[in-house]
């Protein structure tokens, strides 16, 4: 039973680019049971640098997984990964 974990990145546009699509494809090709996707999110909502909130990103990723049929072969878990402040 192989689970694949990926950090997809930040989303500043409301669509997946070719790199995101390729990363998802490779994750699901390797996974046997489950894919866990972490999405970087800011603690500050709706800034120019971070315009999309996690629910929008999660829905966009799930839509892609459903379109490609990934969710029929593996369980898909999408979770936020909050920024850690540093000085």
What's a concise summary of this model?
This protein is of the alpha/beta class and about 90 residues long. It is built from three helices and three strands; from the N terminus they run βαβααβ.
Radius of gyration: 13 Å
The count of helical stretches stands at: 3
Distance between the termini: 41 Å
Shape assignment: globular
Q: What is the number of E strands?
A: 3
**Beta-strand level of the residues, as a percent range?**
25-35%
SSE topology string: EHEHHE
Strand order of the largest sheet: 1-2-3
Percentage of residues in helical conformation: 25-40%
Largest sheet: 3 strands, parallel
pLDDT average, as an integer?
84
Give the low-pLDDT segments: none
Sheet/helix structural class: alpha/beta
Task: Give a verbal description of the structure.
By secondary structure, the protein is α/β, with parallel strands linked by helices. Helices cover 37% and strands 26% of the residues. The chain contains 3 helices and 3 strands. It has helices spanning 18-30, 54-68, 70-73, and strands at residues 3-9, 34-41, 75-82. A 3-stranded parallel sheet has the order 1-2-3. Strand 1 (3-9), helix 1 and strand 2 form a beta-alpha-beta unit. The longest helix has 15 residues, at 54-68. It is globular and about 40 Å long. The relative contact order is 0.25. The mean pLDDT is 84.
